[in-house]
Protein: STAS domain-containing protein
Amino acid sequence: MSAADNFVMELQHPADVDVDCAAGRSERAKWLLNSPDPPPPLQELFTSIKDTVLPPPKSKKVLRPHNRCFFFLQGLFPILKWGRNYKATKFKNDFIAGLTLASLCIPQSIGYANLAKLDPQYGLYTSVVPPLIYALMGSSREIAIGPVAVISLLLSAMISKVIDPSIDPVNYTRFVFTVTFFTGTFQALFGFFRLGFLVDFLSHAAIVGFIGGAAIVIGLQQLKGLFGISHFTTKTDLVSVIGAVVKALHHHQWSPLNFVIGCSFLIFILITRFIGRRNKKLFWLPAIAPLTSVILSTTIVYLAKADKHGVKIVKHFKGGLNPISIHQLNFGSPYVGEAAKIGLICALIALTEAIAVGRSLASLKGYHLDGNKEMVAMGFMNVIGSFTSCYTATGSFSRSAVNFSAGCETVVSNIVMAITVLICLLLFTKLLYYTPLAILASIILSALPGLIDLNEAYNIWKVDKLDFIICIAAFFGVLFGSVEIGLLLAVFISFAKIILNSIKPSTEVLGRLPGTDIFCNMVQYPMASKISGILVVHINSGLLCFANANFIRERILNLVVDENGIEGGGLRVLVLDMTNVMNIDTSGIHAVEELQKKLISQGVELAVANPNWQVINKMKASKFIEKIGSGWIFQSVADAVNASVCLKMNVLNSC
Amino acid sequence: MSAADNFVMELQHPADVDVDCAAGRSERAKWLLNSPDPPPPLQELFTSIKDTVLPPPKSKKVLRPHNRCFFFLQGLFPILKWGRNYKATKFKNDFIAGLTLASLCIPQSIGYANLAKLDPQYGLYTSVVPPLIYALMGSSREIAIGPVAVISLLLSAMISKVIDPSIDPVNYTRFVFTVTFFTGTFQALFGFFRLGFLVDFLSHAAIVGFIGGAAIVIGLQQLKGLFGISHFTTKTDLVSVIGAVVKALHHHQWSPLNFVIGCSFLIFILITRFIGRRNKKLFWLPAIAPLTSVILSTTIVYLAKADKHGVKIVKHFKGGLNPISIHQLNFGSPYVGEAAKIGLICALIALTEAIAVGRSLASLKGYHLDGNKEMVAMGFMNVIGSFTSCYTATGSFSRSAVNFSAGCETVVSNIVMAITVLICLLLFTKLLYYTPLAILASIILSALPGLIDLNEAYNIWKVDKLDFIICIAAFFGVLFGSVEIGLLLAVFISFAKIILNSIKPSTEVLGRLPGTDIFCNMVQYPMASKISGILVVHINSGLLCFANANFIRERILNLVVDENGIEGGGLRVLVLDMTNVMNIDTSGIHAVEELQKKLISQGVELAVANPNWQVINKMKASKFIEKIGSGWIFQSVADAVNASVCLKMNVLNSC
Structure:
């Protein structure tokens, strides 16, 4: 009679000492073995997709059609909801916040348009229509909509490769509108189909690294304006840009006057920011500093006729209302695929930035932001923007913070800002003819330090070294490669990390915690103790699959050899704790089968403890349970060890 | 005093009823919180690489240098070990097996050379040198070395894209040798650096699908020879090949005589195989049938001068010993990178096939095969093969099975086979001038059914539907795309499956199994029961990371809303069972932090049960433990639930 038979008999006719315990064990094992089939993976996938894509069932109240329609409209246009309770006191706060925002937004918009290699008026256009659309559809109260630095850089870096803006500015602008249209369409689709989780595919660490790298790249691009360099590189990486700057300085192709103007106003803006930080009541000082700088420097240049002495000025500046640009969208060109690709990337990055800033401000004020609704709002504002000469807009980090500090109450501050910018477009653009480019460079430069989050990078380093590698890879990828390389690297490493984590072939030897039935890693819990003759091995991997199954099998066999070597062949049962193995594939099942065969040939029995639902189901389907005998499957490690101890004692008794 | 403070006090000054139990709980929680730091991930990675790459420490006996050297040589050349005990009785068996093998090998080698678009003698060369080298270095006793169908197809399909063999056959042949050299080098390197696990990266399901697809593609290629078609497509996909055949048949560019000869001998071979299956003693009948067919058909064609009537014959056939080809290797060409790439793919596929067949036969005879040593042997045989006009050789499925049935004892049967092939090369090649190409096609066709494993595909379907999708993708990828597309698809889906499995955002509500402290999925175990006021949620994902953290947080919050909705706000504690979460990243920790904040705002406490070693470590590093209070971390779900019950009772008492 083999040891296994003995054991099965013992389970059926337990010795008097452990009647209750053995009966409980076998009943639990029966529960495990007879558990209903888990939902098949395809159905599970569909359910998961359905749960993801369909809105969660909200209140179970039955609504009349009329009400339902109204609720739907309210969902799409939140302004219908909060607009009814809007009061004059709120408007006062929003008005002040909106004016503060506009004074920061006008110079930044011109600068970002310059960064996106567009004429300056397009920056202002983008600060008019998208904020108005967002005010109707968005639900964040603090976010400030408009052009932002990272998206401007992304657009110019990626579109310049397709159409050179210095050669064909008209088609470049048309291409930018087409990309903006795709960006908006993708964003709206993501929202409609509730694909908000797509934004999560850029991990937190990757975003910190990417935005930090992008900030430095944007800063480097500003050296052109700051030094007044005429011939600059179209590449964005550190080496090319520094090379171009050194070359220009060496050949005296720059104008020191630009540098003096740019630097003095940069210092002015930084000092106001310092004062604003020290004294919270003076928050408006750093907010209006850029506009003040623009007005001052423009006046100085105009009066001194400095443009005749080498100071580069804006020059082209078309005023007036946003012109219609729907006829400029170009879907027939061979570039439409490229436009869709760039649109997709911009959509994801823009949403990431907007939702990050929106969520963090919403949680400060204690309300919840629905990511999917925000996406629909952002999508519509960009689609309509692309019809009205705007390029891609999103929520800006720096301006949203200013909006928040300025005490905005609702999204009305965005409306005030948009109207102010519109008035500026209608009346004052001629005055901006003499604005020096260096001042735009220094305004952009002054906004960058907020994008480089060293503190968060340090936190990431402390918590997760691999996450830090992702962060650093994104950072250096953007800095030394290009924007796309940085993004691709970050996404690639993020997913490689998931694969590495899931298949990392790792096993742990478990011991019993004193006074309990809990079995734990003996290295993590030094107080845990082994049971002689029984080796409990825990598979510390979420999957037992083709990529790690053979390795884990060999590792366990080596453990058995080590164990038998020390104790002189005393090992009788190997308990395989499968708690953490959430799924197994055919290679994994083959490996466990082979493991069992080899163990039997060495006189060791294999007991399987706590296989998961999917695992037990596949073991049944592959007849593995019949091969090892259902008596060797246990509901928990404790059950398996207790049964093995009984078995060992029985064998000893019979000896 | 908040509920949490109450609870912590309760832990420190437990009520009389649960003095022991509460003390045990808090001690276990302390063990968990004070567990030493896990090895840092980079060190863990290095240990894992070291364990992988370095050989496992064998016996601890101290060896004298002389013995050590001998053991090393024995390890490299196993023939030194078993050769000393080799006896004449064994040789008799090996001799018969070797002759049987040769009679099958000669026609197959010529056919496979034809498939690889090489002159027929190269197939025979490949059956001479590699088997001899393997006999010195390999440790499998049954494997039959030589050219195989899948590798021949791979070579011709991939190299034809670089150099067209019908235009430049000389450079094509040189390129094949260069690829073979790279294949051997990669194989030897994999073996030396113990990278055997690389072979595992093609999952079992992918291999079944890939080889099945490749078999059909090979069969389709044989239609050229079978119909005697002159102009054939160079593509390998089903659509192109069927198109070419239909076109040829339609335009009468084929010769029916070829078809008659090919089909009649194909039927002859299949009948002998059927007889061999029925009567195991006649195993030699199917083995010699191909050679018999070749001799018969060649004689018929020669006597009937059928080559004048449209029957295509071999013609070019250079006899003699393997010529040296080391000077033909071409590392200077622009194609060297391409050669290395194809070499790498061939190395992996060849090793997969050889190790699969070697291992399964070894386990039948009950000995263990060291994958890494086999790789070194295969590597050397291919490198030396590339110096002596051989193309890539590996272990053949069909011939190894014949070798096994013929009763081979050692690898000497390979030596006998090689010498027989060599004699044939020296003496009989002139006789093969008139061999019809159709006969080669029918020999290859007859070997294909063994490669299509419908039974295994059905098993995969039963056990794992997603694995079956991988299998089918590889199959159809090869069939309708190309060999590379099939392989890439299979590898891509395999890894996508790992990602999907690891990040699939899934949560389960747990209940207590009656009479135990075990908590289980309430859907899987219908007998499990809930504890009122406490919701136990299990995160059923190996990773809590950027890709699923937000989703899981929302899912849990929805569960809380559902629970509170039903019980009218009775929920007091949410126990988060993190048993299966093996790792967490910064996004995951943020998500748990946010979850806790939102729960607190709804009056629900968060208890974390059984965080893994890496998880508790990262929670410490990110100060999460300080935020939720160390009293809310438990070593097991049961501890967390029991503590929560105590807390609830305390609160009720104080009311």
Notes: Chain A has a mean pLDDT of 84. The CA atoms of residues 596 and 628 of chain A lie 8 Å apart.
